[in-house]
């Protein structure tokens, strides 16, 4: 974190001012300098006060009251008056910086050369993820086997529940709940569920440019608390319809990948998962799907729509409902629509035909037949029992 030249720490080296210097009145000369330097190999040293006025761009000043190498870096804010006999130079924080160096006409300058030069450390990304190509949540039954593939993308697999056996270029790995692995570009990988329990996992396909992929590929990561929280954020934001959610999803995923690069440097005290981790993504996804169905119950809802919105395959959606609700998604939606139809009939505001249309049934006949099969009474007969 930088101090600014307006801070108290800068007073050791100089001060700030607002009004431009009157060149004639003070017998000064102005030298306009344009620089893009991020590496400083020499320092100015004047026996007189010197003045710096930034004309264009953003700059910092490297300064010391001795040539011993004890330098301080300040972000330049306002015009600067540098005390006599200071060692300093200007560093461009933008592509270029233009500044006026104002000094007495009879100045005494000494250049102090630095060995090694001072290098300004810019804050630049070393990991770039331009795009997430695909993401989906999958539930695989016991004895599932995927023969394998390779492709020109990175692939992250996070196991939500169960155990997943995988191989990368012939090397075997086992992922348990809250473990993840990244397959590198063009790595042949297989997946299998080899026990008598199902396995659910999140898959993310993405492109990435980084300095050293070996730090995150070909190894199993056991999710620590901070990493797990970020993955949960990512999973929750996937189905968000709020504007700019795609930017938030990319930001979440960038943080996941950065945490993996930092994995070996993080505090081991972060290793224990929070209690809420016992609630798996599977439960959260089901809750979100049920909330969406309830919200949209008066609109046509298709299985394809649910799969697309919640990034889940058709077979995984079927398994999710079967395992947790002992029914199919289609039957759950129809049953909920029929339950809603009873409420609407009780309100006595709409005809049976209007209710059938409002709830997205194809025809009054289909609605009447479904209602009768479910409740063993027709809609019109039910209305008569309510209002007799």
From TrEMBL:
Domain HTH araC/xylS-type stretches: 287-385
Pfam family membership, one: HTH_18
Keywords of the record: DNA-binding, Transcription, Transcription regulation
InterPro entries xrefs: Homeodomain-like_sf (IPR009057), HTH-like (IPR037923), HTH_AraC (IPR018060), HTH_AraC-typ_CS (IPR018062), Tscrpt_reg_AraC-type_HTH (IPR020449)
PROSITE patterns (alphabetical): HTH_ARAC_FAMILY_1, HTH_ARAC_FAMILY_2
GO molecular-function term, one example from the UniProt record: sequence-specific DNA binding
Source superkingdom: Bacteria
Record field: transmembrane: none
Name assigned to this protein: AraC family transcriptional regulator
Native source organism of the sequence: Clostridium sartagoforme
């Amino acid at each position: 974190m930088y101090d600014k030249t307006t801070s108290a720490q800068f007073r050791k080296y100089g001060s700030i001012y607002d009004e431009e210097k009157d060149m004639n009145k003070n017998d000064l000369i102005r030298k306009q300098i344009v620089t893009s330097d991020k590496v400083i190999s020499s320092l100015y040293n004047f026996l007189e006060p010197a003045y710096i006025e930034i004309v264009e761009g953003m700059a910092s000043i490297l300064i010391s009251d001795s040539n011993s190498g004890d330098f301080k870096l300040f972000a330049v804010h306002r015009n600067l008056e540098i005390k006599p006999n200071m060692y300093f130079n200007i560093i461009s924080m933008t592509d270029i910086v233009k500044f006026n160096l104002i000094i007495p006409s009879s100045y005494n300058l000494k250049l102090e050369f630095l060995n090694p030069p001072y290098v300004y450390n810019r804050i630049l990304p070393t990991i770039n993820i331009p795009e997430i190509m695909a993401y989906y949540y999958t539930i695989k039954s016991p004895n599932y086997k995927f023969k394998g593939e390779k492709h020109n993308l990175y692939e992250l697999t996070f196991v939500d529940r169960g155990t997943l056996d995988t191989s990368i270029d012939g090397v075997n790995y086992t992922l348990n709940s809250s473990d993840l692995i990244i397959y590198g570009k063009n790595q042949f990988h297989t997946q299998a569920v080899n026990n008598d329990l199902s396995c659910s996992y999140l898959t993310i396909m993405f492109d990435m440019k980084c300095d050293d992929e070996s730090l995150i590929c070909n190894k199993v990561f056991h999710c620590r608390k901070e990493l797990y929280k970020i993955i949960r954020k990512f999973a929750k934001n996937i189905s968000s319809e709020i504007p700019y959610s795609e930017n938030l999803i990319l930001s979440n995923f960038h943080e996941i990948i950065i945490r993996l690069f930092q994995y070996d440097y993080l505090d081991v005290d972060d290793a224990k998962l929070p209690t809420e981790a016992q609630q798996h993504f599977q439960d959260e996804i089901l809750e979100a799907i049920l909330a969406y169905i309830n919200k949209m119950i008066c609109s046509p809802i298709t299985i394809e729509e649910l799969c697309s919105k919640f990034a889940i395959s058709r077979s995984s959606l079927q398994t999710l409902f079967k395992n947790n609700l002992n029914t199919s998604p289609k039957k759950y939606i129809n049953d909920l629509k029929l339950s809603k139809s009873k409420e609407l009939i009780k309100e006595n505001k709409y005809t049976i035909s209007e209710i059938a249309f409002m709830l997205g049934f194809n025809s009054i006949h289909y609605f009447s037949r479904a209602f009768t099969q479910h409740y063993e009474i027709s809609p019109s007969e039910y209305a008569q029992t309510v209002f007799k």
